[in-house]
Design goal:
By secondary structure, the protein is an all-alpha fold. It has 4 helices and no strands. The longest helix is centred in the last third of the chain and has 21 residues, at about 65-85.
């Protein structure tokens, strides 16, 4: 089990929009840049799943005005949790 193409786009969009700008600390940018690269290569590691879950969980409340976006984010968080549990 992995992410669908649409889920990957959503995750990558979140990373690029919120965790790649220069206003974000270098340590955070580097961490999420690595996750972005692994996602693009289809080589997601355990640390990437943790980063994805943290990013989406952090940002979900920011989308309270959009039920659809919140639903999509929560769905990807649930899938990420399943992937984390499957990897144990």
């Amino acid at each position: 089990m992995g992410y669908t193409e649409e889920e990957s786009w959503l995750i990558d969009g979140v990373i690029q929009s919120y965790f790649a700008p220069q206003s974000v600390s270098e340590q955070i940018r580097k961490r999420y840049w690595e996750t972005h690269q692994h996602l693009q290569q289809g080589q997601i590691e355990h640390s990437d799943l943790l980063n994805i879950r943290a990013a989406l969980s952090f940002l979900t409340p920011a989308f309270q005005g959009s039920r659809q976006t919140q639903k999509e984010l929560q769905s990807v968080i649930a899938k990420t949790n399943a992937l984390l549990h499957a990897a144990v």
